Amino acid sequence: MISYRWCDELAVGDRDEVLALVRRAADFDAEAGFSAVDPRDVDTLSSDAQRVWHLPIKARRDLSARDDAPWVVVAYLRLVVGVDGLGSVQFVVDPDYRSRGIATLLVEELGLDTMSGDGWAGTGARVLRVWSYGSHPAAERLTTRFGVPAVRRQWTLLRHLSGPWAEPLDPVTTEATLSEPVAATAIGAEMTELLAAATVPRRHRDSLSRADDSGLAITASLSGEPAGYVRFDPALHEHEELRAAWLGALVVSDRASGRGLGSALLVRALVALRDAGAQVALMRIDPDDERVMRMCRLLSFEQDEAHACYQVEDLRRETENDLCKTLTHANLGGSVL
User: What's the whole-model pTM score?
Assistant: First the structure.
């Protein structure tokens, strides 16, 4: 038996339990690369642009049948609904209560009807989307059981920078001039100009235009005009017991496309990450982009993890990156274009 109630702001006691749960779950899932809820999101409130719902799910401690057993928060769901009815879902179960039917029972009780009345469970959501990062068996079982299709994919790619599996990082010959790494904040206007000059799918363009200003960037110019850039974050974290760092967005203008500029920028960024102490570099890509996949294979990247975006209702809608957002602590863990 579970108990839950939608709210637009968590009560003090529930907030403390939810915060403890999402932090404990993030630590537990870090090595596997599963989705994580940012603790800051627990305090988000609604605005004119979106409605934010919080749903702490409670059960009796240890799922006891005793009436005197205390109720505790065993799972947490966060739903952000845009003005157009698109709902972005984040959901996490306490590690101590997994594989015990909590998620299945919640879906059975709430249902997945988004078209009746005020949308899903009265929240206003007409479409539900959620990213499952990593090959999460529980997510696969749940979506299969309730017939929820995957509408978009991402892969995390890994490239060894040192050690026995590291291939040489030979510079790529290019007619462009590449800059030294600079703070991304210093070239915001230039990156905006380049993004406008590149053929980028809308789902990527929206997320890139709202990317934060952390990390570093290397720019490229042709005949004195901006031609491309790559973003990366040299901050190190542990990945499979190795020091890892993230590559972010790679953008090349249409006029510079096909000249090897993307490969040249990536290699320069990889060298910078290696020099910063990273043993492996990570990035996320769209596996359906054959051009990017080929470039990455030639640069000795290999698939590390697979991710899927699941959607309920209206499968004709394009899957946007702002809703299917990257659930990672890495600020620049976005798609490479």
Answer: 0.74
